[in-house]
Amino acid sequence: MLMLLFIGTIVFNQFGTSNINAADSITVTDEQREEFIKNFKRIGLNTAPDDAMILRILVQASGAKRGIEVGSATGYGAINMGIAFERNGGHLYTIDVDPQMVKICRENVKKIGLEKTVTVIEGDALKVLPTLEGEFDFVFIDALKRDYLKYFQAISPKLKKGAIVVADNVIRSANEMRDFLDFMEKDKDFEKVTIRASMEKNDGMGIYLKIR
Ligand SMILES: C[S@@+](CC[C@H](N)C(=O)[O-])C[C@H]1O[C@@H](n2cnc3c(N)ncnc32)[C@H](O)[C@@H]1O
Predict the structure, then answer these.
(1) What CATH topology corresponds to 43-210?
(2) Pocket around ligand 1: residues whose beta carbon is below 6 Å from it?
(3) Is pTM, for the whole model, over 0.70?
């Protein structure tokens, strides 16, 4: 499938190819997207590739249409989830408090041709989350570990039945997010499991399905 990205000015793309034409459109193929992800210069904050792939699979398999990522960093998770949201005809809102991360994340979203599907919001998630309108069916929490419960409680009233919440680093940062883990353990509205899709960081992700 070809994705056409229409822009108003001449822009050079990350693939270093000459796909700029007179109509000011950039064509990004699925193969180019996968190449971009393969060559992505991940920083330590980024999700590991297998974790990012699990996120992508969960988004697509669940048919999620409206997602939130808390903590974008440079966008490795966002572009992986964005591919699935695009396939679902959905949208992802990713939030980061660091202006430099937001800038790089926006550039990466644009380079991979996902700017119609992924919106990068600059701000403190604890302030941004209450302002997001409508219901959501997918959430990836990956910012300050000690604030996971606060992020979750800000999003919880907006979660649809069937929504999936994914929390990163639930093994190595368990002590920092103990209140969140205990809260979720007791919450009968969610079925839950911890998965270790990647051993790169010797960590795991909590997966929570809202069943009622
Ligand atoms: C582990 S990184 C996110 C990695 C990203 N999810 C990925 O898949 O590559 C955590 C990010 O959370 C951001 N962050 C920390 N506190 C935040 C807050 N209160 N609101 C929004 N973002 C925050 C940091 O700036 C950092 O970029």
Answers:
(1) Rossmann fold (3.40.50)
(2) 45-47, 69, 71-73, 76-77, 95-98, 101, 124-126, 142-144
(3) yes
